[in-house]
Amino acid sequence: MKRWMISILLLSLVGCTTAHYRVHDKEELRYALEDPDNLAGKELVIRIASSISDIGRPFVYDGSSDLRLTGAPAELTSHGRNHLLRSDSKAKITLENLTFSGGRTGVGSERGGAVYHLGDLVINDCKFLDNAAEFGGAVYAGGRVDIQRSRFEHNQARWRGGAVYSEDKITTTDSIYQDNSEPVLYVRDKGVK
């Protein structure tokens, strides 16, 4: 906890315009997602310094600032009990250099085995492994999804979007989709580029 607070202090002293938290475990990540020090301006930046296993309940973000989660790299693992990240916010979320595995949702209209987000989502250099949901085995987004240099393997959706389900649009570049249920990418009303 002490090294984490020092990281916040140092970043504040050098005049960063966005909030930066460096976290090492699930309690620190939950704390940082709440941004209790009100350090976020336009974007809240959280660096996950080590892998977090058996998260228990989902990590929740409901802030109004955009969120950037970046790994060192790091893996977030649920062991099949729930989402890994849930956000009812319309703020843009960017995920970088992270692995999401073992995310599951319950029976019914549950969406996004690993990530459930109502806004736009950017995924860079991430892996989504062995996640499952009714819709969007790995990811559900209410907005646009932009995927670059990422890998989706063994994700399952009971109905649509084995890897990703979007209410708006999906753009994917230099990414790998392997052994996911069909259709792998699903856009409710538009298309995939």
UniProtKB/TrEMBL annotation:
Keywords: Signal. Residues 75-182 form the Right handed beta helix domain. It comes from the Bacteria. InterPro entries: Beta_helix (IPR039448), Pectin_lyase_fold/virulence (IPR011050). Pfam families: Beta_helix. SUPFAM superfamilies: Pectin lyase-like. The keyword Cytoplasm does not apply. Residues 1-21 form the signal peptide. This is Polymorphic outer membrane protein. The lineage of its organism: Bacteria, Pseudomonadati, Thermodesulfobacteriota, Desulfovibrionia, Desulfovibrionales.
